[in-house]
Amino acid sequence: MEPRDEEIGSWLEREVAGCQFKDVRHGKRFVTLLTQLSEQIGGSIPFACQDWAATKAAYRFLSNARVDEEKILAGHFLCTRERFAATNESPVLVLHDTTEFSYHRDDPESVGILQKLASPYAKGGGPGHHITCGILMHSSLVVTTDGLPLGLAAIKFWSRDKFHGANALKRSINPTRIPIEQKESYRWLENVKQSTALLAEPERIVHIGDRESDIYELFSIAHQAGTHFLLRTCVDRLAGEGDHTIADEMREVHVKGLHRVEVRDKKGTVNEAVLELRYRRIRVLAPVAKQKMYPPLMLTVLHAIERNPPKGREPIDWKLVTDLPIRSRKEAIEKLNWYAMRWKIETFHKILKSGCKAEDVKLRTADRLVNLIAILCLLSWRVFWITMLNRTRPEGAPYMALTPTEIYLLDQLVSDPPGATLTGNQLSLYLTKVARLGGYLARAKDPPPGNTVMWRGMTRLTDIQLGFILGTKLVGN
Q: Which residues form the Transposase Tn5-like N-terminal domain (predicted)?
């Protein structure tokens, strides 16, 4: 088989095609750096670049004032929109969450401060402070209802220096009177707006968030945009005409169905939990200080509370709010399953930190770190996408994820399991071969390969492919 040079990095070329750097050289350096890091997932910049000239060029790119996360991810955002438009599924979920990247630096101000805690171990024996420096990232991941990540739709970075003194202000002023623009939670609103505008079909979107997303302003902007949301609530808001709260009303609601789910405790033991389902359509009001700015909304409140929880495990207690109607037990379970997909963004962040080693880099300034994390987000999504593609689209064509050269090499390197010829050359067959290169045993009762073996296998396959291409050229000469 004759490999074609244009096959190499084809997925990468698609993800960066929409990037528009003002300086053409920046675009070329970005592609080079992304290629180098994709070939050594989890490796340091010097390890990926291999020589001082390439390493220095990478550092210059990351520290350039005309390079930022929006330019780096612009092409990926467009690809996310294309994948969203290509899927016929409705709805599609947009998962929102915030994560922290912690670093140990002698000069924490250059990176940004996450938290400052009192410490009894200060120099000189007196009271002091322990400073943790780092960056916060709020990301929005688009996934199908069966868990396939289509890509990022919005991302924001910041440090807590910008909101210094906000907690002290809350102790003297009612937090509801502080403008939302002065709070960290404003990132939730920005990402909802940006992701909804990017995907351009608001009626197909359901925004998913944990208790940090329980913000009335978010309810309002989603309503105005014509999009939907399903959020876990932690605030007992005013309801009806303002003479009672949501909790008062929900206490009157009888159990409308039961739902059984499997739950693992801290020891890994699987138990069955029985959830009592209660739901009601309720007129919800904004906080008193903001009722002139935001009108009341008709929302559905869904409570799923575990019946007779066992000792030694926290009981399941989900209190969700959505603008969508719930008219039956089936629809209530559907919404619970959608909210359970929120853990997918936690997995994305885990790959970013554990697989791509985003917290192990030695860059010394926030701007450089943000640019590198944005690049690593592309690699993290790619690993996650391939892992979930194997689980959600097992009968798909191998060319959805692999090039002809990669398919050829996998056929030569990894033998087919018994009976594979009877089921055809499905995507799952080849992605399992990739996982086997990464240490997956593929025994009959093994669960589907996870993210770790997938990125290990992808890295090894890249090395093998480069060797194959070099060998082919040498023989050809």
A: 10-67
